[in-house]
């Protein structure tokens, strides 16, 4: 029969809890690229393409086959909100943007990540709405990757919300 000291038993229990919680967290990345197009009307938001990535350097991103963005007027200001398709994420972070030195896109002023209910959105306003800009975003989930929706289910849910 094995006898453990209280400190050994406590250390073992803490290790088990940490291992279980570490396996129940996962990250996903989103890359969003916005580009104006010839023929766009004056003041029209640049079109954005959203890509789903398993990690920041994923060489095989999955392109979302529809536009996740729409315009809203918030407190008298026109903003373009793009669903980044991270439903149920506990948080989302902007990892980087390009170009790094952008003349009309400033965090918290002309773009920002915003959580609404269970979804995160990237909004752009003023001249940032109409410019060429890209963002890398990391979403953190408090569940294992295997619990997340398949791309097809994610797209089906997102189409109902947009």
TrEMBL record:
<dbReference type="InterPro" id="IPR056710">
    <property type="entry name" value="DUF7808"/>
</dbReference>
<feature type="signal peptide">
    <location>
        <begin position="1"/>
        <end position="22"/>
    </location>
</feature>
<dbReference type="Pfam" id="PF25096">
    <property type="entry name" value="DUF7808"/>
</dbReference>
<keyword id="KW-0732">Signal</keyword>
<protein>
    <recommendedName>
        <fullName>DUF7808 domain-containing protein</fullName>
    </recommendedName>
</protein>
<feature type="domain" description="DUF7808">
    <location>
        <begin position="25"/>
        <end position="156"/>
    </location>
</feature>
């Amino acid at each position: 029969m094995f006898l453990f000291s209280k400190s050994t038993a406590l250390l073992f229990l803490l290790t088990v809890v940490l291992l279980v919680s570490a396996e129940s967290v996962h990250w996903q990345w989103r890359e969003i690229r916005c580009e104006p197009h010839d023929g766009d009307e004056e003041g029209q938001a640049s079109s954005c393409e959203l890509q789903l990535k398993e990690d920041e350097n994923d060489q095989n991103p999955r392109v979302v086959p529809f536009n996740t963005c729409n315009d809203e007027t918030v407190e008298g200001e026109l903003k373009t909100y793009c669903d980044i398709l991270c439903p149920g994420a506990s948080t989302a972070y902007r990892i980087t943007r390009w170009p790094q030195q952008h003349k009309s896109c400033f965090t918290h002023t002309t773009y920002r990540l915003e959580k609404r209910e269970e979804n995160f959105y990237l909004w752009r306003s003023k001249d940032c709405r109409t410019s060429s800009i890209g963002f890398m975003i990391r979403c953190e989930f408090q569940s294992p990757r295997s619990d997340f929706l398949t791309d097809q289910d994610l797209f089906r849910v997102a189409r109902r919300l947009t």
